[in-house]
Amino acid sequence: MSAHPALTMAAVCLIGGVTGYVRSRSMPSLIAGTGVGLIYGWSGYQIRSGGDYGYEGALAASVILFGASAPRAGKGPIPLTLTIASALAGAYYAKQVYDFRFAS
């Protein structure tokens, strides 16, 4: 189950980046959506295969996405949804990292 949020967020970011580009020819949307989506995808793969730093990568992608979407959260439903989703994914992966690193 741990890889599921990262893989879901990867799909959401990739689709969102492509959609942003198609609708408004926004290269920043395409680059950011693809970049963050690839980090989430890599993280999901690492988590699923038992590789190193998968949880940390997913947490980093969540922080990046939250930082980019939070200032725009009031501008519409898509930035608001991305802000909420990244906060939830970030909280989930922060707990996973904490449990792995510090909990016995």
TrEMBL record:
Keywords: Membrane, Signal, Transmembrane, Transmembrane helix. Gene3D superfamilies: Transmembrane protein 14-like (1.10.10.1740). It comes from Dacryopinax primogenitus (strain DJM 731) (Brown rot fungus). GO terms for cellular component: membrane. Belongs to the TMEM14 family. Coiled coil: none annotated. This is TMEM14-domain-containing protein. Its main location: membrane.
